[in-house]
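RECORD TYPE: protein structure
NAME: WDR63 protein
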Amino acid sequence: IGHPEIFPLVFTTKTQEIFNCRVDEDVTEENCFKLIKKEDIIQDLKTRATISDFHPIKKVVLEYPGEELLVVFDAKFQYGQNFYFVASEEAKENLLKRPETAEEKEGEKEEENREETLEIHPYKPPVHKPWVSLGSEKEVEEESVKDTVIKIKYMISRVRKKFGAPITFTDKNASHVKDSYFECTSYQDKTFSIKILEKDVGIQMVPKVKEASTQTKWTYPKNAATQYFPRQLSNEEKEESLSSEKLKEFLTSVHLRMEIALQQNEIMNAFFDDWKALAEDENSSGGKPDVYLKAYQSFTDLRYFKNRTISCVCWHPTIYGIIAVSARDQLSYKEQVNLSDKSLLQQSVILFWSFFDSMHPQLLLECPEDIFCFQFSPSDPSIIAGGCINGQVVLWDISQHEEKLQNAKTVADGIKITAVNTVNASILNILQYIYMSGGKNGTEPTLVRYCAVSSIQYSHKKPVTDIHWLPDYFEDNQMAATFDKRAETRVQLVTCSPDCSVLFWNIPATKLPEQLSSEKVREGEIFDMPPDVPDTFKHLNLCWKPLVKMYPYCFPEKVQSLNTLEVPTKESPYTEMSNSSSKNLKVLQSISTDFFVGTEDGEIIYSDWKMEIESDSAKPHTQKDTIHTETINTLQRSPFFKDIILSVGGRNFAIWKEGVTNGPILQSSCSAGRNTAGHWSLTRPGVFFIGRDDGNIDIWDLLKKTHEPSHFQNISESMITFISPWTASSKQHFLAVSDDLGVLHVLEICQTLSHPSRNE
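PREDICTED:
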């Protein structure tokens, strides 16, 4: 505050070494100034970019007028950091030529005054004064060394007669002595016994170095064998051994242990290698395997998906790299339910994208309203069924355009792009440029109109939130009875909606009977269709009605006076035609007709669409469980275990087992954010993906952890709206993830998440 030209900086050790301003070496508290050339700082910004310590003041450095910049070491952290940068030439000069302090000036003035006032005094000899003791002699006495130990006096004497006595020396052979070594050993003289009180001794240990070698004697190897004969007991010895008390006691003592050992061998495999099975998924290096989702491609459209969110994503079942996407307005769930009949501000379509052309959609499916969900027919991928936000069900036939999808290739249209930034803003800018230039060249995708749409009167009253094709080996009639079905084509749909209803739809034969084709067409009961629309389902358009309508979860406050089961009246001859085939078919009693339903209140309902006649009413058996606190957005069966179901909604998820009535078998704890989507892995039974409202994908691997995700990865800055995996080949697996901004992200799944372990 008060110094706008000073900018505090944090210099890391790396930066101090680069610019030779190391603390306590190059700069100190006394010598705290360091001049750095401007071009060196600019070069550091280019080299280290955002990790450079000068990055926060990059703009100030570039605008600095001088060639050298002043950096000051702030030892006392006066400005909050260990260095600060001076951003003006004037401040730099003032700091480098700092004026003398006030104390120094005062000291100089005092010296000048003393010199001016100096006077000459006459010499006076010193006067002797008596010495006054202040206690110093006591200190000297205490510090002086005094002998406190009594000194020992030694007197050495000898007998007088021994003085000057002759001495005789003799020779001795050293070989006669042990080890050929002769010494004059010392002996203790008892006359003198000196007691040592304290002694300083130093010992140095030196290891001995010795060189040695050993030579082993190698012998020629020989093969040897030994033959022995078993010892045979005689019959008398055998009888004596078997009837002995010692054998009976032994068998009695080991009987229980032997029985337990035999049972254990039957229960478990004693030769199973637990260590090998434990480490089979680890890398050869012994480290943890890499778990990641690699970005493969991104798709978005400014014309049809601008300010819209992706509602559903489906991969084409047979054509490689083709993915279909639908979108709706960015509305909350409550607004979707209450404003389902609003007028559309822009055209609603389903876009078909291809891996070979990420800039232009390959196909457009026209929709009467925003599509909430859609599915390809498993038996005929050219037939697509979708559910609208106003409750209607739509059918498309793209058989005439499959060849175009199979031959999709990248078209440059004269636009060369050398690099594409994967950030959403950059993609949108590039796509906007391509659309502005591509429209002139006429690269508009083909628009396919829908073949049939259900009757508004008999459709759902609220958005269709989910749609499924029934299996191709059975079909239902109007009494909810399940029949054997010989034709391997799926002709029945089931849909659900927040209006508390589940509808079963029957798709009659695409070709009309000969006796009806001439009469009904002339009578005008089959509506005329535009020439570019396939006539596959033209007999169903605007008159298609559900085969069975049931309410497995009626709420009194939402639905008033509704029957448990509603059957539409047989006004159309095509309904009779589709049901007449069931007269000669066998009723399947072993087929399960149970299903799960998730509600907007977070309830999981287990119901049966087959009626049980009790007295005068037909009621399906239902069971409710409330685990989630918000709307359930995902309810999916495991692709490996048909009785295992994953439910996602609100701040948690749960895994259910069909037949277990006391709740889920696995329930997650409440997370900080909301879970918005989920999907099982198609290749690993213990792996599933959870999308969150913060743009992250949680990867759950139940073999590793059950209390938290084993890995998570950020995909987008907005909420995840849909997840759809796809297996292209045994070595290539993809995961399509859509967000609330209308962007579709295609990610490649790593080998760890796509290859199951043994016995998973």
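COMMENT: The first strand starts at residue 6 and ends at 9.
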